[in-house]
Amino acid sequence: MAGRVTISDIAKAAGVSKTTISRYLNGNYGYMSAETRARIEEIIKKYNYVPNSIARTLKSKKSGMIGVIVNTLRYQVGAQTVTGINDICTKNGYGTIVHCTNGDRRAEETAVQLCLNQQVEGFIIIPCENSVAPYLEICERGIPVVICTRRLDDWPYGCVYVRHDELIQKMLLHLKEQGFEKVRFLLDVHDFHKEAMAGFFSAASAELFGMSREESIRWVGRESPAVCEALDALLHEYPGQSKAVMAVNTHTLFLTLRELERRRIRIPHELGVCGYDVIGWSELVYPGISAIRQPMDRMGIIAAEKMMESLREQRPTQGACALEGSLFFRNSTNLKAL
Question: pTM to 2 decimals?
Answer without folding.
Answer: 0.78
